[in-house]
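Hello again, I could really use a second opinion on something today. I've been staring at a protein lately and its backbone has me curious. Can you walk me through what the tokens say about the fold? Take your time with it, there's no hurry, and the full record follows here:
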Amino acid sequence: MILAKLSDSNRYENLHPLFKQLFDYVKSNDLMNKDLGRIELQGDDLFINNSEPTLLSKEKQVLEVHQQYIDVHIPLNGNEIVGWKALSNLHEPMHPFDIEKDFAVYDEPASTYFEVKSGEFLIVYPEDAHAPIIGEGKLRKLIAKVKL
């Protein structure tokens, strides 16, 4: 997992061949005023979900994991709390891993919580169980999916 300022994204672009394309797009487009929904940058290999979720309490949010994609969370107009726990420290998921949706959830508490602020990004790898969108109100955010 990596938490950093969007202005420092060039330090992390060499970690995946599609990161530079993602960060260049995010920094050069007004995504706050773009329609909600999927933005395809390179088909299923790189896309962004532009969303406006209602934030949840820590008690109502579950940990999620992915195997085929790296998540890059980018809040646009506020801050969110994210919970984290190492995948290796989790027990059984609530349901078997859904390969087609690349998703499993765990009803276990996170081991740590931290804030991701507007102007920052969070890179979440498959070994990072994460519980995003924690807080109050609504948040405009991007969730980029980067194929491994």
